[in-house]
Design a protein that fits this description.
It is a single chain. The protein starts with 9 loop residues before the first strand and ends with a helix. It is α+β, with helices and mostly antiparallel strands. It is built from two helices and eight strands, in the order E-E-E-E-E-E-E-E-H-H. The strands form two sheets. The chain has a four-stranded antiparallel sheet, with no helix packed on it. A four-stranded antiparallel sheet has the order 4-3-6-7, with no helix packed on it. It is elongated. The chain folds into two domains: about 160 residues, Immunoglobulin-like (Sandwich), CATH 2.60.40.1970; about 45 residues. This is Protein af-9-like protein.
């Protein structure tokens, strides 16, 4: 999330998202869906509260209360409604000297395109990102570097966990694809460089023959 990353910077992957379930035809019109907005670790067994002190969720002003502070994991808010809206999350870190990081997420209640809501099949909207700490305090640095054992507070144990994207599992495939692309580009650049040197040598020979 931060820019201007320095050589001693540390990062922590995270996922921000929402999951919404249609409550069926018998539900009140104003409460057609139950939804949960959350901030979680990318690692399914990681406890994000090791570095996150609290998350403030700023919801739609028609909801009461519109601002909700969560100080323990899981960092999530659940409610009911009928409309989609943008949620602001203010993330506070342990031992941090910096201001909280502000994130935003669009709550999605309805499936894309012409698809229709199906009771029991939730609509999930997630994105992967990373917190980047350019100059963390010593306390926060230790928290970031500590390898904690698997925790029951990880999203693997969440009731909604089966619907979440396991970005950690997808990472090796993505990394391998990127590595393959890098190798192709590097090979093409090396070929182009050799070709340029040959053309330069040929040009010098022509210039010598013409007395230039």
């Amino acid at each position: 999330m931060a820019t201007g990353e320095s050589s001693d910077a540390l990062s922590k992957p995270f996922v921000i998202g929402s999951i919404a379930t249609w409550l069926g035809k018998k539900a009140e019109e104003s409460r057609s869906h139950e939804w949960t907005i959350y901030l979680r670790a990318a690692n399914p067994e990681e406890d994000l509260s090791l570095i996150v002190r609290k998350v403030v969720f700023v919801l739609h002003p028609t909801l009461q209360p519109p601002t909700r502070t969560i100080e323990t994991a899981p960092f999530e808010v659940t409610d009911q409604g009928w409309g989609e809206f943008e949620v602001t999350l203010q993330v506070y870190f342990h031992d941090s000297r910096d201001k909280p990081i502000e994130l935003s997420h669009m709550l999605k209640l309805y499936p894309p395109g012409e698809q229709v809501n199906i009771a029991g099949k939730p609509v999930v909207a997630e994105r992967y990102d990373e917190f980047v700490f350019n100059s963390p305090s010593e306390g926060l640095r230790q928290r970031l570097l500590t390898e904690a054992p698997p925790s029951i507070k990880g999203w693997k144990h969440s009731a909604n966990g089966k619907w979440f994207t396991d970005f950690e599992a997808d990472a090796p495939v993505e990394s391998q694809s990127l590595q393959q692309i890098y190798q192709v580009i590097t090979s093409e650049l090396q070929t182009a460089s050799k070709r340029r040197r040959l053309l330069e040598d040929e040009l010098k020979q022509l210039q010598g023959q013409n007395g230039l």
